[in-house]
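Regression check, ribulose-5-phosphate case 234:
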Amino acid sequence: MSRDFKIAAAKAALTLLEDGMKIGLGTGSTAEELVRALAPLVADGLSVIAVPTSERTGVLAKQLGIPVATLDEYPHLDLTIDGADEIDSALRLIKGGGAAHLREKIVACASDRMAVIADHSKLVGTLGAFPLPLEVIPFGLAATRRAIEHLCRDTFALAGPLTLRKNAGNPVLTDSGNVVLDASFGRIPDPEGLAAELSQIPGLVEHGLFINIADIAFVAGPDGVATITPGPAD
Ligand code: 5RP
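Current build output:
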């Protein structure tokens, strides 16, 4: 069922596509449904250039015959379509569950529009139940971690473990060779403030808060696909 919702959201977002567009392709299981749904359109003659947000998405797109390019070749895109880990009513997002939020943010911000695709489980009242991914340069990791802890506790009263993301016992490395700290805050009442301050910490390359980046979300559930545009926060 969850997969059906992801497919429905992806297909809804594809209605934004126009012939000749340059598009960013997101990362994750929902974005992969997007790539799978896009492939037959390309096979039928739709002309698009796709810039993937991860190596993983790039491999899948190429396998399915979608023309792939780099952001350096096409630094200005028409549209990026990507998944999310959490979405609130103001269309603020947490991303990075797939450790790709650095490239995802660069690609989304190089695009005229960002469309989010998700199943309804990603909608939240307040961001933060999903641990916030923080991409950190390995050099000085302990110092960067300490700076993040101090900021979050002293300025935002956010306490919660910062966990180094691992896979099979080894730190997960992003496509850019960095590691990920997952910050389990539970609730983030001031995402704008936190995002601005996290961006000041040296060594923290990018956080997973996407504020004022997404333009529209297609959220699929048992009642169909709902469209969300940015509104005031609850
Ligand atoms: C990857 C992401 C993904 O978009 C996010 O994790 C959602 O993934 P999925 O569609 O598999 O639930 O931010 O870094």
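Comparison notes: The CA atoms of residues 152 and 158 lie 5 Å apart. The pocket of ribulose-5-phosphate is lined by residues 26-31, 82-85, 95-101, 104 (CB under 6 Å). No diff flagged against the previous build.
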